[in-house]
Amino acid sequence: MNILIYLCILIICLLSLYFFKLFLSNFGLIITMITMNLISLILSFKFVTLSTINLNANTICYITMFTSLYLLIETMKKEEVKKIINLNFFITVFASIFLFLMSYHTESITDSISINMKNVFITNYRILITYPISTLLSNYLLVALYKKIKSLYDLPFITTVTTYLVIGLVSNLTFYLGAYLNIFNIKTILESSLSTYMIGLILTVIYSLILPKYISKKVVK
Amino acid sequence: MISVTLLGIELITCIIFILFLYKKYTSLGLYIYTIASMILTCLMSLKTITIYDYDLNLGIIPFVTIFIVSNILIQKKGPEEMKTHLLVILSTTILSFIILLLVSIMASSKIALFTNASYDNIFDNSIRLLFASIVTMLYSLILNNKLYFYLKRMKNNIFISNVFSTIIIQFIASILFSIIAYTFVKDTIDIIKLIMVRYLLSLVVGLIGTIPIYITKYIKEQ
Prior knowledge:
The complex is a heterodimer. By secondary structure, chain A is mainly α. Chain A is 81% helix and 4% strand. In chain A, a hairpin with a 2-residue loop joins strand 1 (47-50) and strand 2. Chain B is 80% helix and 4% strand. Chain B contains eight helices and two strands; from the N terminus they run αββααααααα.
């Protein structure tokens, strides 16, 4: 069942990226990137299982965000992409502030959801701090690495997969260590971060195979 | 009292972000702000708080600030831009909540079991409230765009356009949200109370929203 739902989410993300790029071009890619980042922030609080693998629920959205960024690098200047990355960071900070404030409000007597919001967003407040930082770090690293690798091998598949091999590791380790150090033991942190990293790698391969089709698609007016 | 203070902090944060994003990214910043605010509005509306003995759904501050952003966009770009704005809001909100709801029905891992269970509970029975938030936002935003542009054409004055559109549109939005979200769930008198409190708060936020609209008038687009 979980695998089926995961596949559904993957198809939804692929289609949304495709249609936003098709109808709104670069603007659509920026929207996809930031929406996926916001969903990713909310999902980062949950762990799911795929067969026997434990991973963070945000993996697909996170990889879709990276894919939008690869596509943006292909069509925009480096400085413009960096501006978008900063915008992505600012909006994540804004959302984090609101998620914290939302959970901090004293609930009404009839409210039954507030206790769950406190358990998710206040107990795990470290995620609200770590997530924006690890995303900013990995996005900047992605731009630098992608350009370097592209100058060596100008093949979308090789460039994206090789870039992910580095940035996936950096972002996962930063996020997991920042969010869960002293909460879970090191073994659990390493296991879950590596499994998230591996699933992310598979997703990157899938996206990389489709990427050339996305790049060649012309915008519909 | 704590809730009122927190709502004040939310409002100040929103205004600061609107002005900051507009100054740095112009209309792109406003679009992105709208997407974030809409997702947060829907999520926050699941929680109710009490203000001076009256129950109220959270999320009203980001909700009303979307109208302020919309008015800034009309002021700067004209009504043609609003079709894209509405389309972006609709598509991103639906996309976000389909994914969030799908993940909430996925079986959780044994890691962080307590947090996982709490996450799933947040989205239990939330579809009606989410639907109410999205429909209210879209319907009232369409009306707001038409009314604001009409008032702008009649008398090109930001204060008049914003105040009159806020007074009318927020009333419609409050009624719409409360009816869609709580008919057959709450008593009629409770729904009326909710409409009144929601309207009063929206009115205050909407009127304060005139300040950022005025300020953006003096920020030049790059």
